Amino acid sequence: MGISAVSARPARYGWPRLCRLLGSCATRRPHGPAPAAVRPGRALHTARPRRQEVPLTCERYGLRRLPFSRLSRADVAFFEGLMPGRARTDPEELRAFNVDWLKAARGCSELLLKPKTAAEVSRVLRYCHERNLAVSPQGGNTGLVGGSVPVFDEIILSTALMSEIISFDPVSGILVCQAGCVLEKLNEYLGERGFVMPLDLGAKGSCHIGGNVATNAGGLRLLRYGSLRGTVLGLEVVLADGTVLDCLASLRKDNTGYDLKQLFIGSEGTLGVITAVSILCPQKPKAVNLAFLGCQDFSRVQETFTTCRAMLGEILSAYEFMDEKCMELVVKHLGLSNPLRGSPFYVLIETSGSDSTHDEEKLNSFLEQATTSGLVTDGTVAALWSLRERITEALTHDGCVYKYDISLPVGKLYDLVTDMRARLGHSAKNVVGYGHVGDGNLHLNITAESYSHSLLDAIEPFVYEWTARYNGSISAEHGLGFKKKQFIQYSKPREAIFLMQRFKAMLDPKGILNPYKTLPSSP
Amino acid sequence: MGISAVSARPARYGWPRLCRLLGSCATRRPHGPAPAAVRPGRALHTARPRRQEVPLTCERYGLRRLPFSRLSRADVAFFEGLMPGRARTDPEELRAFNVDWLKAARGCSELLLKPKTAAEVSRVLRYCHERNLAVSPQGGNTGLVGGSVPVFDEIILSTALMSEIISFDPVSGILVCQAGCVLEKLNEYLGERGFVMPLDLGAKGSCHIGGNVATNAGGLRLLRYGSLRGTVLGLEVVLADGTVLDCLASLRKDNTGYDLKQLFIGSEGTLGVITAVSILCPQKPKAVNLAFLGCQDFSRVQETFTTCRAMLGEILSAYEFMDEKCMELVVKHLGLSNPLRGSPFYVLIETSGSDSTHDEEKLNSFLEQATTSGLVTDGTVAALWSLRERITEALTHDGCVYKYDISLPVGKLYDLVTDMRARLGHSAKNVVGYGHVGDGNLHLNITAESYSHSLLDAIEPFVYEWTARYNGSISAEHGLGFKKKQFIQYSKPREAIFLMQRFKAMLDPKGILNPYKTLPSSP
């Protein structure tokens, strides 16, 4: 059986409700590449002003600590001997590593380890396994579901000093690097060589590639380059008992046995610690074009997508939509101007290709077709990513925000917004929808003047039940982490959850790796 | 511990040698889309002339049967009750299902089951699990490594009658279908709707999509659309004990827990029986162009690849090479004519895009650049796939063929051919190399007038050791099946093999699913 992470329920609220409390009203992070000023950076960790202390997760939820060993002086001495100067115990230094990016979860770890090699990670885990010490692996600590910080006093195992590029082959485009490489740095490194990373995220300035892989990050380039399931070619992983699993192949094709690395992609540090990554990188596109369009209804948004995909074909790299409420908020709160006449829906299209003349011709043909046929009522070709990117920011100015990141069949994508709006009526201030049409990924956001239990009860579990009814996913790209682990059953059948728990029990029998995360507590 | 499949070694030859015997001289199947006349089809199964009987695998290898139950009359009665008319015991009918496509492996199963639903597969496996009856799952039976036929008397579980298309969404391009759908039929179905399957194989006329996924088939479209790891979105799998695992999501993004389906992709039927597949299908390209070029050395083949990828970018869909020996054999044995002056290397480039004018412009610019810079000495734009496709056929006319399907870092791709040629000298008739430069996939072929032990000993294990030295894969796309399972250690570390064995033991504790396959016998 898997871990039984949280057996004590808090006195006042049931576990699901508390999960929901944490899951809402705290997500104030722009999706997509954020403007430089609000982009998460390491400076946030080291130079944050002391504001109100984030409540300890364990206290907020009234959780019971699992029976792991307590860190002893001898333990600290062991780690100091193993990595002199890189076993940190200064509470002030640990503060930033104990709190998540959203300031919604806080652990009370007393030890931060910064290994430089897989061999060091192996020795750390072997020791922790023998001593029954819990470990919270941490990359750039930019996750949105509380998965990257301790819940209690787990030792924080940071990949911050594992930032070496091991190799890059410009013929194949295959990059091999340590897990702690920052995504943006890798992208810069590749950019100088005519390549790009196959993924891009708002958190790129801080997030580590190991963390990206451990959480199976999606992001902005998924429509074009596919998921990490296809682009990650190999991993080096250290298992809970210290075994180093070297599956760091840098081959596009390898059919020798089960593809073990896949189990670690998206396992959120609960099955092993990723120490190095081999990844296939596409060429840097030579030409990038944008178009911003207005549509009269969501069926036209969909039809425009199919038309555009057919006409732009291989150069289509993004197809994002937002509803008029989103536009209103961006205009109202951020002072951006809507370049189009008012439309119920707006669409942002990006092309990336190898020939600017060809790409512009394709885009113009499509725009002519879309306008002539009435799919699109208005449009402009301009650099308008900011309208789309800053929706999240605008939402945070609108009050308390209840945020959901949902996958649905494309045809049902906007129905959830419509149904939710009808359901909530005047109890919500705004119910807005935007997202990646091409990926079937909806960002549903509900705002209110202030937090209210009754509004939350009207939203949940309705939103999860609705999503489950249409075979959607309650977490498209953010993972389950600490906040959503109790809701997995809305997207996965009982048999699958049971099998996941068996894998966990097999690979980490003592449950020391990132406890209280990803899999639901036992009933 | 995993299965201990073959514990008895044959008297005369060691196991590795016998594996090699089976692995060589039998592969006479064209790679890539074969000409219609030699394309594998179902007719091969039903109307094959009675030639020399293929030796029983168990006798040929002196194998010891694992202690599974023997099929009883009561068992047959049970299955006949479960699926009237679809539990077949006629030896004549079973003959084709007992022999593999290469006529190199033969089992002696006495029962063929043809379920129509996952529920039937579940009832079959639950019964077999309880009764300790071994099962050999079978798709189109087109595999090249002996993985799709019984080794002893395993019950053959065919997906032949599970051929329904469940749904297709033309907005997202997501197809959901039963495992027994024939690849070519799916492609035709999609073609009528403006889409294509993301994979293409020479065996497309017979192979089942379930078998493709179970073996993680690569094929001709991998360079463009990536592997099944990225395009397969969901699976329905029946586990050894009959549990139905419904992970048939049709979503591009879903980060709720571990991605269990990945473990079954490429597991060759040893961990579960795939009963349905959800797969992301790309649009059908509107324009396809070809170019056939001559290069003076392999470094120019590589440099031409990087130039071509940079200039053709998103429309490049194939980059295949062949050496002059391949060309000589195609000319000599098949009477095809070489449209170019003699060159040491030839390259076939394919583009697939959405605008023929744009694509031709790009191709012409590239060709001008490649010729001007001396990368390419000669070239023609013509439909010349047959020269590349018929190499395998030409080789079979050259004598006994020793065939290897190897992945290597692109820079080392041809060195193996050069080294092998130097090593073998006059003991081989021809040593030729061709393959997919873009995928790092080399087809190394060695011909001789007749089979010889001493030649085989000169090739193996040298070829595997050489591949391992450069971190290559000894099976790029064919899998391990029965023939190559004992060589896995050349491509995977001990820790990984051990972990695979633990997964096998966990999911199939009695080892009833496709025994004697994929994982090595215990030492």
From TrEMBL, chains A, B:
GO cellular component: mitochondrion
Stored Pfam families: FAD-oxidase_C (PF02913), FAD_binding_4 (PF01565)
Molecular function as annotated in GO: (R)-2-hydroxyglutarate dehydrogenase activity; FAD binding
FAD-binding PCMH-type domain ranges (all copies): 104-284
Signal peptide start and end residues: none
The organism's place on the tree of life at top rank: Eukaryota
PROSITE patterns in alphabetical order: FAD_PCMH
Cofactor(s), names only, from the UniProt record: FAD
InterPro entries in the record: FAD-bd_oxidored_4_C, FAD-bd_PCMH, FAD-bd_PCMH-like_sf, FAD-bd_PCMH_sub1, FAD-bd_PCMH_sub2, FAD-linked_Oxase-like_C, FAD-oxidored/transferase_4, Oxid_FAD_bind_N
Enzyme Commission numbers on file: 1.1.99.39
Keyword entries, A-Z: FAD, Flavoprotein, Oxidoreductase
Catalytic activity entry: (R)-malate + A = oxaloacetate + AH2
Similarity-based family: Belongs to the FAD-binding oxidoreductase/transferase type 4 family.
PANTHER family: D-2-HYDROXYGLUTARATE DEHYDROGENASE, MITOCHONDRIAL
Function as written in the Swiss-Prot or TrEMBL entry: Catalyzes the oxidation of D-2-hydroxyglutarate (D-2-HG) to alpha-ketoglutarate. Also catalyzes the oxidation of other D-2-hydroxyacids, such as D-malate (D-MAL) and D-lactate (D-LAC). Exhibits high activities towards D-2-HG and D-MAL but a very weak activity towards D-LAC.
Protein name: D-2-hydroxyglutarate dehydrogenase, mitochondrial
